Automatic annotation (TrEMBL):
The keyword Protease does not apply. Signal peptide: none annotated. It comes from Stackebrandtia nassauensis (strain DSM 44728 / CIP 108903 / NRRL B-16338 / NBRC 102104 / LLR-40K-21). Keywords: Isomerase, Magnesium, Metal-binding, Phosphoprotein. NCBIfam families: PRK09542.1. It holds the Pfam family PGM_PMM_IV. It is an enzyme of class 5 (isomerase). This is Phosphomannomutase. InterPro entries: A-D-PHexomutase_a/b/a-I, A-D-PHexomutase_a/b/a-I/II/III, A-D-PHexomutase_a/b/a-II, A-D-PHexomutase_a/b/a-III, A-D-PHexomutase_C, A-D-PHexomutase_C_sf, Alpha-D-phosphohexomutase_SF. One of its GO terms (biological process) is carbohydrate metabolic process.
């Protein structure tokens, strides 16, 4: 029998198909999900991967046999699935492996109201129940099985987003959008097509889970090259790049230069605080220092969290935060059930630029205050020992402060800072460093790497 411990991650299910999981495993997850959570209605959806058709159908049949009514939303972005879960207050199961290669697939599960499920809040129990089913202990069939009904929610999702960000009065903008053959090719026409001011140049909008043009992972610079070139050649005002399931959005300015997700977080935070004065905004601890500065300058309360969407979502709900942003280009909104949506973040950028008389590079310059190293991975034999070594190395520096919210963070008197986080799945330490100048950032980066890699 398959070992589900290898594919059930901290907050989702993901693995090779069929080597690590197949339709029998998907059915076990469907029965386990209903059995463990007790939900009576589940919306399921899938991205463009070929394996998603059979996997989602198997999950649906088993969930219905366990007593839940299933709404099959068909092809969706992950944030469209969250829209259905949130607006109807029902559980959800999104079949996607996001930016991973075609041989992967996965499931992102949520409770009614798009509330996340992590290992601590039910995913471990679902894993164990599914494993028991696969090991020969089937879940009891419901006295009254549920139904499976196909329903399309795309127009409702699009209308909901346009109701949150009004783009009707903006100036004309030319925007190149790279869908990476992912689900943005399905959702962008519905959401942005009716906006008269937008002239959209589509790139790789054909849904293809084999990703024939490039990986659907805009976090990797190589996957932005086509978009950057197109923006410059066409004289566009900006470019947008989405990942495979379209829950993350990256922005390129009119020069073809990537805009930091921290700058986008600050821009959206400022807009949301203008609508909701004094609100809380969440940011993870490796976003730029500029983010909490902008939040404070605009009268908001900045709350810092660990890296990872389960931490962001939990803290947002706890603090009733209006918005949350991560360095990885995940953006979360109170008006979207505290869930993440790349499309809504993109619309905030379009509105800000459409109401400005300057190019995007000028618009975001005030949010780009520091120089970042980006994330740098180092293989180490003993993560804890190396963290202790680095902490000890800097212990006597005047004006430094140390915290252990997520790995090791050291902040220096001149405003520079570093964070070293251990990977949960590999023998790696992940370094992020930031400083007021390029020279200081490079000095700090190289100094830390010398300690980590010796």
């Amino acid at each position: 029998m398959p070992d589900l411990g290898g594919i059930v991650k901290a907050y989702d299910i993901r693995g090779l198909v069929p080597e690590q999981w197949d339709e029998d495993v998907a059915a076990a997850f469907g029965a386990a999900f209903v059995s463990v959570t007790g939900v009576d209605t589940v919306v399921i959806a899938r991205d463009m991967r070929e394996s998603g058709v059979g996997l989602s159908a198997a999950f649906a049949r088993a969930a219905a046999a366990a007593g839940a009514d299933v709404l099959d939303a068909g092809l969706c972005s992950t944030d469209e699935l969250y829209y259905v879960s949130g607006s109807r207050d029902i559980a959800g199961a999104m079949f996607t492996a996001s930016h991973n290669p075609a041989v992967y697939n996965g499931i992102k599960l949520c409770l009614p109201g798009a509330r996340p499920i992590s290992m601590d809040t039910g995913l471990a129990a679902i894993r164990d129940k599914a494993q028991a089913i696969l090991d020969g202990h089937p879940a009891p069939a419901a006295d009254k099985p549920g139904t499976v009904t196909a329903q399309d929610f795309l127009e409702g999702y699009a209308a909901h987003l346009r109701g949150l960000v009004d783009l009707s009065g903006i100036r004309d903008l030319n925007v190149v959008i790279d869908a990476g053959n992912g689900m943005a090719g399905h959702t962008v026409p519905a959401v942005l097509g009716p906006v008269d001011a937008l002239s959209v140049v589509p790139m790789y909008f054909e849904l293809d889970g084999n990703f024939p043009n490039h990986e659907a992972n805009p976090l990797e610079p190589a996957n932005l090259v086509d978009l950057q070139k197109a923006v410059v050649e066409r004289g566009a005002d900006l470019g947008l790049a989405f990942d495979g399931d379209a829950d993350r959005c990256f922005v390129v300015d009119e020069r073809g230069e990537p805009v930091s997700p921290s700058a986008i977080t600050a821009l959206v935070a400022e807009a949301e605080l203008a609508r909701h004065p004094g609100s809380t905004v969440i940011h993870n601890l490796i976003t730029s220092r500029a983010v909490p500065e902008v939040i404070t300058e605009n009268g908001g309360k900045a709350v810092r969290t660990r890296v990872g969407h389960s931490f962001i979502k939990a803290e947002m709900a706890k603090a009733d935060a209006v918005f949350g942003g991560e360095h990885s280009a995940h953006y979360y909104f109170r008006d979207f059930w505290f869930a993440d949506t790349g499309m809504l973040a993109a619309m905030f950028v379009l509105r800000a630029l459409g109401n400005a008389s300057v190019p995007l590079s000028d618009l975001v310059a005030s949010y780009d205050r520091y120089v970042s190293s980006g994330e740098i991975n180092s293989t180490v034999a003993d993560q804890s020992a190396k963290l202790s070594e680095v902490e000890e190395y800097y212990a006597d520096r005047a004006g430094t402060s140390v915290d252990h919210l997520d790995g090791l963070t050291i902040t220096f008197a001149d405003g520079a800072w570093l964070n070293l986080r251990p990977s949960n799945t590999e023998p790696l330490l992940r370094l992020n460093a930031e400083a007021p100048t390029v020279e200081r950032m490079r000095e700090l980066r190289d100094e830390v790497l010398a300690q980590v890699r010796r």
